[in-house]
Amino acid sequence: MRVCLDSCAGESLIESNNVALSKAAKGVAVARAREKRRVFSLLPFTAGMLALLLSACNKPDASFSSVTIEHQISPQPPHVGTGTVTLKLVDAAGKPLTGAGIIIEGNMSHPGMKPEFGKAREIAPGRYQAPLEFTMAGDWVILIHVTFPDGTRLEREVDVKGVRTN
Ligand SMILES: [Cu+2]
Hints:
It is a single chain. This protein has 166 residues and is an alpha+beta fold. It folds into two domains: 2-56; 62-163, Immunoglobulin-like (Sandwich), CATH 2.60.40. 33% of the residues lie in helices and 37% in strands. The chain contains two helices and eight strands, in the order ααββββββββ. The protein has helices spanning 11-57, 59-66; strands at residues 68-74, 81-90, 101-108, 116-119, 121-124, 127-134, 138-147, 153-163. The strands form two sheets. It has a four-stranded antiparallel beta sheet, with no helix packed on it. It has a four-stranded antiparallel beta sheet with strand order 4-3-7-8, with no helix packed on it. The structure holds copper (II) ion. Copper (II) ion (CU) is lined by residues 108, 110, 113, 136, 138.
């Protein structure tokens, strides 16, 4: 590009400016190319972040399905009177889930009886124990109501069949 203003006296100056400009333009082009490479190298990172964000959005469901609750009823076999429900809560990695609030609700499989409740206390990390009153012989269904420290809730059902008379 050659630009003559009022006179061509300054031509060489403008020319040299043009050289400088084209050098600068080259520099910009190189910088742009670098930028492009940087953007491409960032892509896997961005995809990773996106996956993380998506998994974070799915967290409630994921954590629900990954929570394992082992239960134990004593005495065994259960009979009418005060029983003890012992629970062990672990995550998918087998790590104990501590600090949960747990209420046990006992109902009989037939209608017309009031539910029995027992509040669990944590006896060891991830291990909880609650008393439960079996007020009648027969089949019971136990509902485990769990509230985790972050406020998320989880409910599991356990059949306790054939509670015996004393
Ligand atoms: Cu009953």
